[in-house]
Automatic annotation (TrEMBL), chains A, B:
InterPro entries: DhaK_1 (IPR012736), DhaK_dom (IPR004006), Dihydroxyacetone_Kinase (IPR050861). The lineage of its organism: Bacteria, Pseudomonadati, Pseudomonadota, Alphaproteobacteria, Hyphomicrobiales. Its EC number is 2.7.1.121. It comes from Kumtagia ephedrae. PROSITE patterns: DHAK. Residues 7-326 form the DhaK domain. It comes from the Bacteria. It holds the Pfam family Dak1. This is phosphoenolpyruvate--glycerone phosphotransferase. It is an enzyme of class 2 (transferase). It catalyses: dihydroxyacetone + phosphoenolpyruvate = dihydroxyacetone phosphate + pyruvate.
Length: 328, 328
């Protein structure tokens, strides 16, 4: 294992210390290293809280700040955060209007956020499940919540900043999740520091098609294909799943898993954009970069989110976080 | 070689097409794929132009836009752009106040930018050479220009936006370059698409200490050390080179080479920040991310740039590019 670390036991806390020091104008750590919280809370605003296993950075801590999350709870790598993390975060960032938990659909995450919701008051939840690759998987019953979670956090975060109520934000989150679909492909495995070896073996000419963000299996192992062929199959899967909704305006988000350079991500964006446009979608918003990662895994996912006038406007609303920033 | 591409011959043009489509509000391609230009030029502003071999994205195309570059000329991967690219870019983005070329100190780049400067009128140049690792290297006489180039482009770009003249911007660029030092370490090699195999061989427990951004050799091949030990040696090299200037306020920039996850970059930032603070530097600006890359190479560089009140203010000035954006 080749990593820039001091000890596998302190990777997460040392990284969080650096993160908090680098972005002290935006955020702070809470409860030791239990959560990352927005530095300036906005009284009367519904608090948005997310979290999950670490290793997907900048998701979720990189999205704490104005216009997105109020707190993020990091578990150990590929391990759900514990309920006390969310309970303490909610107690600290709830300014009286309640909290919305945004949870990726993984069994551990769902269970622990549920327990935290029961132990607190004034909590509602949105569970994201945008991955069309497989119905059930290693860590999940039903579809996995993957890169589309960023889209939910951005759009609901903008609406929360405008002062909307908890039930309305929950409904908006569910609506964005239902309009958002993703699928990914891995060319190499990630290596979890505590494990010290690759999560899965993969041949020199193979790809894992439909991979999850923990390196868990997808639809099939296949020979590595061209970018156009990969994009074609992913876009067809997404479009087929969305069915009649594939028209009008959309956000196209090409997400790197960590080990793939920006040059390849833009090349995949170029392929995917043409394919969706041929199917009658107009790409009005774009995001290309490594935002929902799997440590050092090479590969990418493609996310399409169908937008209406309101969600397109909310996507553009000002945001000031470590990883996404515009309009301020 | 495992890459998301269609053909090694079309990697660059397809990637540039995707890049231009994703950021059409900020930039456009010029002369086919000869340069990336800012969409809206500002009459009377000195035009800033940079460029170099591709594979270091987002450098330089990702820095085209308000408050940074007016044009960037991409060569093939690890290959300098040709003089006609810079000549055409200058002709298109010069609105009458002249052009400043910002050039990383590599022999091919320096030669081709020099030729372009001779073929055009009203050109001045800043050559960056922030890498303290080695005095001469595979592609370079003297020090290499590496991640510190971003700092020069940001600060000079902000000053150009304020309407300063060509000679003043050239002097500012030279001043920022002289206050900026970098050094990097690689854990794995990059793989250039046209070569199809790793640029260099490296053992499972080795690192290349002082590596260049093309994967060219650094100070020595060594056993992989802890993050703190690596940071300590890099910070000592930077501080030793800056000498008496290591005090007061500074920007600390931890740059990923492409294959290293954000978790490790923030951990390195944490180590480096403490080390510089012990030496009497106050870190007042921070940047952590993969901005000056070497395709999929794992590793990072550390850059320290000593700031005065003016350069600290210019770093914070509004910028709107694909890769750096704040204040607007």
């Amino acid at each position: 294992m080749k990593k820039l670390i001091n000890s596998v036991d302190t990777v997460l806390t040392e990284s969080l210390d650096g993160f908090a020091a680098a972005h002290a104008d935006i955020l702070a750590l809470g409860g030791g290293h239990k959560f990352i919280r927005r530095r300036s809370l906005k009284p009367g605003k519904v608090a948005l809280i997310s979290g999950g296993g670490s290793g997907h950075e900048p998701l979720h801590g990189g999205f704490v700040g104005h216009g997105m999350l109020d707190a993020a709870c990091p578990g150990q790598v590929s391990t759900s955060p514990t309920p006390d993390q969310m309970v303490e975060a909610a107690a600290e960032v709830d300014t009286g209007a309640g909290c919305l938990f945004i949870v990726k659909n993984y069994e551990g995450d769902v269970m622990n956020f549920d327990m935290a919701a029961e132990m607190s008051e004034g909590i509602m939840q949105v569970v994201t499940n945008d991955d069309v690759a497989v119905e059930d998987s290693l860590y999940t019953t039903g579809r996995r919540g993957v890169a589309g979670t960023l889209v939910v956090e951005k759009i609901v975060g903008a609406a929360a900043e405008e002062g909307r109520g908890l039930a309305e934000l929950k409904a908006l989150g569910d609506r964005v999740n239902a309009a958002t679909r993703s699928m990914g492909v891995a060319l190499t495995s990630c290596t979890v520091p505590a494990a010290g070896r690759p999560t899965f073996d993969i041949g020199d000419n193979e790809m894992e098609f439909g991979v999850g963000i923990h390196g868990e299996p997808g639809r099939r192992r296949d020979a590595l294909k061209s970018a156009d062929e990969i994009a074609d199959e992913i876009c067809a899967a997404i479009a087929g799943d969305l069915g009649m909704r594939v028209n009008g305006n959309a956000l196209l988000f090409v997400n790197g898993f960590g080990g793939t350079p920006s040059m390849e991500l833009y090349l995949m964006y170029n392929s995917a954009r043409k394919l969706f446009e041929k199917r009658g979608v107009t790409i009005v918003r774009s995001l290309v970069g490594s935002y929902v990662t799997s440590l050092d895994m090479a590969g990418c996912s493609i996310t399409l989110s169908i937008l209406d006038d309101e969600t397109a406007r909310l996507w553009n609303a000002p945001v000031h976080t470590a990883a996404l920033r515009w309009g301020m």
